[in-house]
């Protein structure tokens, strides 16, 4: 056998070497539907040396989710701003800064918030909007994107900043699955400069190679699936009573004492009665809902009232540092920075519809309080 290998080793090595190329060509030719969606999203993005990931200039894609969740046009202008017209000289502009929410992930260009705001008149002045949002941004990305915009757009007058809960907080259930807040990820990268180079090479290779991209997606999904399974196992053991960590009520706030134990667990596992929403719920200001609000899912925690602001933790030092840089960059460019508090997360909306408060919105109140102390206007959209 060894003799046969030595005799044909070059042919064998050639076949093994050509296998990745054949797989690459096959994936490009057949374009599997499940992978095509991920590829289009990947090609929309480009590497950036400062904020790591931006949007490709002059992009023009029609994105269709492989499971039919959404579809629509995704275009960018010459500056890589999603759904925005080319900047018009001497026309004052409003920038919309944020992550996937502001970028408009899940909707077509014409339905993005920033596009709907285009042409707004404020005190008789008509403004053009530029969408600065990029998905997966954290506070570090906001700062560098804002700084770049003040240099690119001489007529930029106002920037509406929409922070995201994933910037500096994350539900404990997601943390157990290995998902970290964006600011924590960026802080870890800054502590290990080599990780920036690794990210660059990884991003570039997976952008140009369908095979490497599909392999990376498969590994990532398997890791998430593995962590999810173990997280669900520990949660079930906690509900049954076989796992009792000291911080259990913090880790599993959606499992109160009355739901713990073997019999409550078996009842919930094998008998799931139809939800009966409280159609008489009040909005909290004396008015009644028109219609019946959706019931609050068992994994969503709501409170009867807002948490006292003084009881909330201060912002992480890393987040505050980049907020200070954002404020300084805006002021040095004579741009008015406005922070917007908007309850758009599912957890918040479920509670709001039932006249309650979601502690998930605490992130926005913490950020808003900090900006107010820095004399930055805060727009509360609740």
Rg, Cα atoms, Å: 25 Å
Query: Whole-number average pLDDT?
Result: 85
User: What's the structural domain tally?
Assistant: 1
**Structural class by secondary-structure content:** alpha/beta
Q: Which strand order do you get reading across the main beta sheet? A: 8-5-9-10-11
Contiguous helical run count: 15
Name the overall outline: globular
H/E element sequence: HHHEEEEEHHEEEHEHHHHHHHEHHE
Residue runs with pLDDT of under 50 for 5 or more positions: none
Overall number of strands = 11
The oligomeric status of these chains comes to: single chain
**Beta-strand content bin:** 5-15%
- Helical proportion? 40-55%
Distance between the termini: 75 Å
Largest sheet: 5 strands, parallel
What keyword list fits this structure?
single chain, alpha/beta, 5-stranded parallel sheet, two-stranded antiparallel ribbon, 15 helices, 12% strand
What report would you give on this structure?
This protein is α/β, with parallel strands linked by helices. It has one domain. 45% of the residues lie in helices and 12% in strands. A hairpin with a 2-residue loop joins strand 6 (121-122) and strand 7. Helix 6 runs parallel beside helix 13 (317-332) and helix 9 (194-208) packs across helix 10. It is globular and about 80 Å long. The N and C termini lie far apart (75 Å). The mean pLDDT is 85.
Question: Layout of helices and strands, plus pairs?
Answer:
Layout: H1 2-7, H2 9-30, H3 33-44, E1 45-48, E2 52-55, E3 60-64, E4 71-75, E5 93-97, H4 100-103, H5 113-117, E6 121-122, E7 125-126, E8 128-131, H6 139-152, E9 156-161, H7 172-175, H8 182-191, H9 194-208, H10 210-240, H11 248-251, H12 262-270, H13 317-332, E10 336-341, H14 346-353, H15 362-373, E11 378-380
Parallel strand pairs: 5-8, 5-9, 9-10, 10-11
Antiparallel strand pairs: 1-2, 3-4, 6-7
Helix pairs in contact: 6-13, 9-10
């Amino acid at each position: 056998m060894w003799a046969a290998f030595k005799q044909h080793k070059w042919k064998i090595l050639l076949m093994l070497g050509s296998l990745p190329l054949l797989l690459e060509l096959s994936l490009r030719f057949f374009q599997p539907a499940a992978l095509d969606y991920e590829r289009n999203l990947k090609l929309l993005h480009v590497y950036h040396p400062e904020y790591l990931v931006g949007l490709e200039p002059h992009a023009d894609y029609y994105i269709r989710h492989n499971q039919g969740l959404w579809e629509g046009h995704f275009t960018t202008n010459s500056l890589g701003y999603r759904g925005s017209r080319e900047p018009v000289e001497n026309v004052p502009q409003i920038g919309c800064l944020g992550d996937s929410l502001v970028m408009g992930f899940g909707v077509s260009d014409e339905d993005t918030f920033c596009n709907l705001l285009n042409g707004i008149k404020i005190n008789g002045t008509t403004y053009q909007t530029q969408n600065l949002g990029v998905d997966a941004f954290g506070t570090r990305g906001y700062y560098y994107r804002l700084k770049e915009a003040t240099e690119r757009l001489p007529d930029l007058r106002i920037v509406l900043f929409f922070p995201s809960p994933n910037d500096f907080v994350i539900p404990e259930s997601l943390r157990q699955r290995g998902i970290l807040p964006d600011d924590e990820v960026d802080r870890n990268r800054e502590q290990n400069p080599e990780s920036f180079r690794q990210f660059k090479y990884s991003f570039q290779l997976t952008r140009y190679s369908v095979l490497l991209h599909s392999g990376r997606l498969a590994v990532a999904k398997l890791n998430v699936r593995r962590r999810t399974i173990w997280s669900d196992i520990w949660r079930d053991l906690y509900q049954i009573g076989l796992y009792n960590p000291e911080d259990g009520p913090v880790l599993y706030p959606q499992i109160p004492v009355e739901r713990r134990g073997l019999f409550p667990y078996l009842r919930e596992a094998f008998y799931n009665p139809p939800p009966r929403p409280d159609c008489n719920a009040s909005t909290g200001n004396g008015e009644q809902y028109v219609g019946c609000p959706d019931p609050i899912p068992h994994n969503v925690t709501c409170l009867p009232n807002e948490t006292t602001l003084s009881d909330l933790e201060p912002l992480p030092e890393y987040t505050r540092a980049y907020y200070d840089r954002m404020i300084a960059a805006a002021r040095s460019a004579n741009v008015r920075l406005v922070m917007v508090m908007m309850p758009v997360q599912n957890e918040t909306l479920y509670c709001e519809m039932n006249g309650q408060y979601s502690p998930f919105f605490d992130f926005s109140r913490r950020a808003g309080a900090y900006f107010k102390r820095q004399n930055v206007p805060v727009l509360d959209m609740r």
